[in-house]
Each structure stands twice: as structure tokens, then as C-alpha cells.
Amino acid sequence: MITQQKIKTVLDELQENGAADISVFGGRVQAKYFPQDAKLTLTTKIYDGVNFFPKSVRDCLKKEPPMPPADIQTYTTLEEESFQAFLHYLGSVERVDAEKLRKLLEEFGWIAEEWRYYLDDCDKKDLIHVLQ
Question: How many domains does the structure of the chain reveal?
């Protein structure tokens, strides 16, 4: 659970700078708020290929992950040059309040964590086992 103090800090940063970073379930989430468009975006890394992007992970990103449906719509992107995959949320918000933001961040964090577990399992399909 995200503390009220963390939420207050994120809200203050969103109001002042239009952007904030917060740690949710061990992952760093970048939040950006566009008041003129009443939009909020969330982004977090869900896979780091460290100089290689396995075919199995690419294939898994094209499929629906085996997790229960969520209340929010998210999508994934690949950054080929950094060998990373990201989870994104883009939503309409008239006004950002603490309780709505807390629930949104927690759900987004849960979805991201599920994606991380799923992609880690997919990554294992490309391991080469060496017998000695």
C-alpha cells in the first residue's frame, strides 16, 4: 500500500512540475499530468534485456498476458535501442485527488508486477542449458 505522505508528495510534484516519480511494488513509476488536456500518464519498466531482446519475450509481449482483467487499460512498448519494455497507462482525469491516485498507482503497480513475472517466465524459454 502506498502511504498518504507519498501520495501527497506525488500530488504536489504533479501540480508544480507536471511530473513525478514514485516507487510502487519495487518498480519506479513515472507520472505525468497534463491539466490542459485533463490527461494523466503512468510509465514503468517491465523488462530489461541487458544488450539483448529474446525472441520469446517479444512473442509474449504480442500476446494477452495470463492475468485477471484489470479495471484500467494499459499497453506495452519496446525500446529496441535500450532492450527494454515498458508498461503505460493513459487516462482522462478532470481532477487528481489523493484517493483516486493511490488506487490508480496501486493497480498500475500490480499490473506491472504481473507483467514482470510473466516476461521473466518467457525469458527462461530462451536459456541455453549447458551440461558439464
Answer: 1
